[in-house]
Amino acid sequence: MELPNTKPSGPSRNESLFQRAKQLIPGGVNSPVRAFKAVGGTPRFVQRAAGAHFWDADGKRYIDYIGSWGPMILGHGHPAVVEAVQAALLEGFSFGAPTEREVELAEEIVKLVPSLEMVRLVSSGTEAAMSAIRLARGATGRSKIIKFEGCYHGHADALLVKAGSGLATFGNPTSAGVPPEVVQHTLVLEYNHIAQLEEAFALHGNTIACLMIEPIAGNMNFVRASIPFMKRCRELCTAHGTLLVFDEVMTGFRVALGGAQSVYARSIPGFKPDMTVLGKVIGGGMPLAAFGGSRQVMEQLAPMGPVYQAGTLSGNPVATACGLATLREIQKPDFYHTLSARTRSLVTGLSAAASQTGVPFCTDSEGGMFGFFLLDQLPQNYATVMTTDSPAFNRFFHAMLDDGIYYAPALYEAGFVSAAHTAADIEATVSAAHRYFSRM
Question: In terms of Cα–Cα distance, which of 222, 329, 259, 223 is closest to 119?
Answer without folding.
Answer: 259
